[in-house]
Amino acid sequence: MRVVVSIGGSVLAPDLDPERVAAYAEAIERLAADGCEVGVVVGGGGVAREYIETAREIGANEVELDRLGIGTTRLNARLLIAALGDRASLAPAVDTEEAAAALRRDEVAVMGGVTPGQTTDAVAATFAESVDADLLVYATSADGVYDADPNADPDATQFASLSPAELVEVVLPMSRDAGASAPVDLLAAKLIDRAGIRSIVLDGTDPTAVVDAVLRGDHTGTDVVPVDGEEPDYWTEER
């Protein structure tokens, strides 16, 4: 099974917690040991947002803000690579072609942001499409996709399942400013819809949740299921 896992920076390294980074490395190693080809895209998280807000206050434009965010995502990616050791590529891939080449070498391909105007959500969707991934998993700080911001609206309702087109409709009103925080952004949703990628959006604060979702399809988040989509064969195979 070929899977791309997008890990939010605040999920991977809250307060730069080495134990959390090590736990994520262990989870990814578990997937690889079980026969999965694994690509990982790492976000910037709270550290990136702090840099972005500081730079915004001193007059940086949106492209400059994006570049600050990209730099932070690549630092976070290096943290994960350090924890993975020989299992991973030596450095964060700078584009999806380089990441795909790492997969072909049987390495865990790790990357951060790529270009201004594109979040790591979208990078992960592009990566998944480019390598014909069987599954795309977004490990976020929210337990799935909601019809409103659950942090601001106590009546927000979680979607158990959405089609890719429905996902686009849900995230369409969301902010697109640099550093905006949402489970999946608009461009990523459109790419998922275009490619018909089976996806899962889940709470990734416990890295074992990613393992359960990838290996068995077990999770409490939101399934994004293409029309006429079927469960990956991997979930029904005896291993």
Automatic annotation (TrEMBL):
Residue positions binding UMP: G44, D66, V114, T115, P116, G117, Q118, T119, T120
A Gene Ontology term for the protein's cellular component: cytoplasm
Protein EC: 2.7.4.22
Alphabetical GO biological process terms: 'de novo' CTP biosynthetic process; UDP biosynthetic process
Protein's pathway: Pyrimidine metabolism; CTP biosynthesis via de novo pathway; UDP from UMP (UMPK route): step 1/1
Record text on activity regulation: Inhibited by UTP.
Stated role: Catalyzes the reversible phosphorylation of UMP to UDP.
PANTHER family associated with the record: URIDYLATE KINASE, URIDYLATE KINASE PUMPKIN, CHLOROPLASTIC
Subunit annotation: Homohexamer.
Protein name: Uridylate kinase
Organism: Halorubrum xinjiangense
